Amino acid sequence: MAERPWGGCGKCLVGVRRLSRMEAATTSPGRQWQDVLTAAVSIGGYIVGWAGDGEVSGATDPVTRLRLGPWLRDEMGSYDGLVAAAVAPARAERRRVPEHRLQIA
Asked: Which residues have C-beta within 8 Å of that of residue 24, sequence separation ≥ 6?
């Protein structure tokens, strides 16, 4: 099981999903959900929460996003890292996502 409540599991991860257009089949919410779970399992991690922001531009500062922002501002509890699907590492770095908290699926 790749999803579970936070409990000091050592690799407690937040799954991140973002879409600028909801209809894109290759980056659909379901596809991203599966990619994130697969990546979490591949590193022995668990998804303890989700930050899904639909219809959000990649140019939006992640810290100000409705669902991801609270995680990045440490308002949602403890976690060890983020797992995102279809995110360019350079974009994440430009947008102030701490490198130690990013795992690309």
From this structure: none
Question: 12 forms bridges with which residues in the sheet?
Answer: 46
Span between the terminal Cα atoms of the chain, in Å: 17
Task: Indicate the pTM of the whole model.
Answer: 0.71
Alpha carbon distance 95, 21 (integer Å): 20
DSSP SS3 for 40? helix
- In angstroms, rounded to a whole number, what is the distance separating the alpha carbons of residues 97 and 95? 6
Residue 79 has pLDDT above 70, yes or no: yes
Per-residue pLDDT tens for 1-19?
566 665 666 689 999 988 7
Phi/psi at 103 (5° precision): -130, 120
| Backbone φ, ψ for residue 83 (5° rounding) | -125, 125
DSSP 3-state of 25: helix
Answer yes or no: are the C-beta atoms of 84 and 52 closer than 8 Å: no
